[in-house]
Amino acid sequence: MRGLRIRVRGIVQGVGFRPFVYGLAERHGLTGWVRNTSAQVEIELDGEPGALDAFLQELRDDAPPLARIDAVEVEERPPSGFGSFEIVESAHEEGWQAIPPDTATCEACHAETLDPNERRYRYPFTNCTHCGPRFTIIEDLPYDRRRTTMRRFEMCADCRAEYEDPRDRRFHAQPVACPACGPHAWLHGPTDDGTGGDPLARCAALLRDGRIVALKGLGGYQLACDATNDDAVSTLRSRKRRYGKPFALMVPDEGWAERLCRPTDAERNALLSRERPIVLMKRRDAAEIAPEVAPGLDTLGLMLPYTPLHHLLLREFEGPLVMTSGNLSEEPIAIGNDEAVERLGEIADAFLLHNRDIYARYDDSVVRQLAGVVTPIRRARGFAPAPVELPFETARDVLAVGAQQKNTFCLVKGSKALLGQHIGDLENLETLEHFQDALATYERLFRVRPEIIAHDMHPDYLSTQVAQEYPDPGAVRVAVQHHHAHVVSVMAEHGIRDPVIGVAYDGTGYGTDGTVWGGEVLVADWSRFERVAHLRYAPMLGGEAAIRKPYRMAAGYIWGVCRGATESEFAAFTATLPIGERIILRRQFEAELNTPLTSSCGRLFDVAAALLDVRREAVYEGQAAVELEAVADPRVDEIYPYDILRRGEGWIIDPAATLRALWCEHRAGRPLSTTAAAFHNTVASFTAAVCERIRERHDLERVALSGGCFQNALLTARLVETLEATGFEVLTHRAVPPNDGGLSLGQAVAAYAIATSS
Ligand SMILES: [Zn+2]
Ligand SMILES: [Zn+2]
Ligand SMILES: [Zn+2]
């Protein structure tokens, strides 16, 4: 006989780890005990050496689906003479406890809801240790039912028996419930006929009838309508005041996804993953979907049902549904029943409500395959707050407040970076309150007391003000430049500290010289950066307004960048400017009035889209670039000319020749599929050329890509290909978004490095 003491760290609580250990010990004839402590699971065992070895092997190999084992420590000790194996009372102290994020309904639970002999037949709140709600219902840790919104539901005898049986799939499943004791759903609205019929069947009937239904999902309300019904989709757009921007769809099953799109293997895996994100995929030409779902795009965002409520509804409906956040454009997603009925009353014809409260808002997550890697574009339900493991351990907690757009915050504790869920654009009071609520929840759940507070350099960002007003005057404030933070975010994900060539291409970021940066090539490590190359500055005529009006940006480029003799070549374009506006713009340009300078790569894409007449005015951010990518043919390998100019110690990328060639070709009648693709190829080409020059001078082999422009799959694929072909090692995002949604991770790591190096 031998004795062992084992400690397991990682996500090992709230995932059925103790019953798993219990079953394993029983099977190998071992005695002893298992218990949770605040930070880990502890096991003591007596048994035969062979049985103990087998136990250790299976502990790692067969762990429950939601568990993530980071470390197993094993210590030999003399046998204690245990008589049996037991699960003993938890020893909870203050401290860290890793719980998995909300997880899609597992196969076993799904099967139960479809079996008329089961007591949970058609029950929309079925869940178990391997699936169901988590962070959307947790008010505090340690994780148990008393500290969730399930508190008000007293378990019935049947549920309690499952909850207390270590051999049951629902042993200590905190949200366990059944029709006899748990939450229930009902239909509310003007069409309520008071018949008390099955709410899901009635909801599906309304949807088939072209109505808009607000339904209470996992992390907030969603608005649903028939995705094949033009009128329903158009009505939803106008009521929600969301124009142009694509809607996501929920489809009943994988077969439906294949009917509408052409998923790659990686995309199919993402679709079926337990995070169940919205996956952006190439649509089939023949896909029968209302054109208003995703106008001007060659992709659709699809997701599969992820709660029993969704499964049952989609089963009744038997087709694709638009499934979008339950909010007015730009506001946070609604979570409370009264709140939803009030805020969404003008949008929805009916409400599918239920009485399990949502404690924290989590939007649906969005992923896209970029250069072969499925990457989050919006990181929320299913992903947050799963920590990103960092290659260092800090004794001082860090808070990074993120950017103004697509805001997330990030908390660092020990070696873990906890990136909060997608909050949205910090432009209104509601979103700011959402930010503050979510931050307060995380600080409480994870016992974080930030001593270092990182923020953007932009003085007018609301997040910068939040950092300055943070109620701890003793905490150190560190301002991190926007594009430096982008580059550090991708470095941190890969655990890379040594200097890299950082390519940060996005729409807007505050530069150290007060101009608007966005086409930046840096040499950077965590604490320092040098701006070694950037896109040539162009005037933004009318400032911010140029973002919504790509034709203004094009005029700025024509007058400010493609100067002199070439300008007459563009006369046919400038003649298309609205006449009154043209005079004003020209005056603004000459007097340098309200014309900030920008090196933004996002704006350069806008210019190309405007010149090609793909998009002259944008109704949502990034629309011009997204549509330009949609028309480009990836088989084209043409590249337009460009210039790389030497300036002091660095380089300026001058795209004047590119735009001239683009415009000439367009005027000559070359198809958009060719010109748009050649433009993408050119951006990849000049970027790789600049990296090559930096490699020669700085002896760096590693390139890190970040920034919103790298949500563009064609650009990302082209650039990665080109760089790898010339021997560069390329780092791209995997765990956090390349856009500003991932910025807070870079801010946190950069601020930690800056604060601890001085
Ligand atoms: Zn389950
Ligand atoms: Zn029950
Ligand atoms: Zn950015």
Automatic annotation (TrEMBL):
Record Pfam families: Acylphosphatase, HypF_C, HypF_C_2, Sua5_yciO_yrdC, zf-HYPF
Source organism superkingdom: Bacteria
EC assignment: 6.2.-.-
Pathway(s) annotated for this protein in UniProt: Protein modification; [NiFe] hydrogenase maturation
Domain YrdC-like: 197-382
Top EC class, one word: ligase
Protein keywords: Hydrolase, Ligase, Metal-binding, Zinc, Zinc-finger
MF annotations from Gene Ontology: acylphosphatase activity; carboxyl- or carbamoyltransferase activity; double-stranded RNA binding; ligase activity; zinc ion binding
Span of domain Acylphosphatase-like: 3-89
Catalysed reactions, as listed in the record: an acyl phosphate + H2O = a carboxylate + phosphate + H(+); C-terminal L-cysteinyl-[HypE protein] + carbamoyl phosphate + ATP + H2O = C-terminal S-carboxamide-L-cysteinyl-[HypE protein] + AMP + phosphate + diphosphate + H(+)
Any single biological process term in GO: protein maturation
TM spans (from-to): none
InterPro entries on file: Acylphosphatase-like_dom, Acylphosphatase-like_dom_sf, Acylphosphatase_CS, Carbamoyltrans_HypF-like, Carbamoyltransferase_HypF, DHBP_synth_RibB-like_a/b_dom, HypF_C, HypF_C_2
Catalytic residues of the enzyme: 18, 36
Family note: Belongs to the carbamoyltransferase HypF family.
UniProt-recorded name of the protein: Carbamoyltransferase
High-level lineage: Bacteria, Pseudomonadati, Gemmatimonadota, Gemmatimonadia, Candidatus Palauibacterales
